[in-house]
Fold this sequence. Notes:
Elements: H1 12-25, H2 28-35, H3 39-53, E1 58-59, E2 66-67, H4 69-96, E3 100-107, H5 109-124, E4 130-137, H6 140-148, E5 154-157, E6 167-176, E7 178-182, H7 192-198, E8 203-204, H8 209-220, E9 230-231, H9 234-242, E10 248-250, E11 265-269, E12 276-284, H10 289-314, E13 322-324
Parallel strand pairs: 3-4, 3-5, 8-9
Antiparallel strand pairs: 1-2, 5-12, 6-12, 6-13, 7-10, 7-11
Amino acid sequence: MKNDTPARDFDLIKSLEIFVSVADTGSMTAAAGRLRITQSAISQQIKILETDFGAPLFYRDVRPLRLTPAGLVLKNRATSLLTNAREMRSDVRQAAAGRLPHLRIAIFSTFARQLAPAILRAMKESRLAVENITISRGMALNHAQDLANRDIDVAWTSDGFQEAPDLERLTLVRETYLMVTPRGYGRFANDLRGLASRLPFLRYSTRTQSGQRIESHMRRLRLNLPGSPVFEASADLIDAIACGHGWSIVTPSQLFDVLNTNVEIDARPLPGPSFSRTLGLVWRNGEMQDTMHALAKLCAQTLREESAPRLLAEMPDLAGHFEVLPDQMD
């Protein structure tokens, strides 16, 4: 019966490093020179591995040494494991020094251009203690699952996931939905039904949070508009409006991408009842608290000092419709 207890001096990481070096060089002598240890130590570690796995790892009757099928499997797995081990060592050391090795953030496309440059500047200036970052774009409906799967660390989202006790959240922005038309349709701004009779209503997909909220608002108004083109991306929707293909309901932040572009649209508050949404950061409970609060402060400052003034300078009628909320962390 095979003894499943490894030898006393068995160091898996060390043995795998030696094994991979022999596999790469095709020679125990060359591996010994590369690793600056004796050839007998190389041979001993290979024998320990072969004993532990119960299979030969090299064909020893050929030069250079050639991997057996078992050796090929181990080579592939060992290479990945050693890479992870090196990254783990680096990550732990960076964390001990107060820096997060890697932050993965999901963010709406309309906010990515506003916040990503500020985040990168803060990292460069050491105001955000993060070594590396991945910024991905996506819809709010995907964020909860991405957080649960650990595909992301934090989401900038319009869904607070209040029903999820394992998530923490900071609400940073409140914004009111607006009516957006091609330029020149302002005379119909006080009558949604009259406007809809003259120009198609362009919809957000109900795969988006905005699409769901807008459809719910339309039902409250008992405004049943006919089927029309459907969009997921705000930029595509705004382009269609500017070209005269219809009108829609959007939020102020969904106009960020067209600021300073002379796009031919008019934006104004909705007639009658209004409705709004809030946005902020959501992350897993108890994780990376200092980094999350630093990120929240950075996002709020950027939106308050850069994005909101730029929006209101071009569209002053929207004052009060995009609000960065007071600091919740002091």
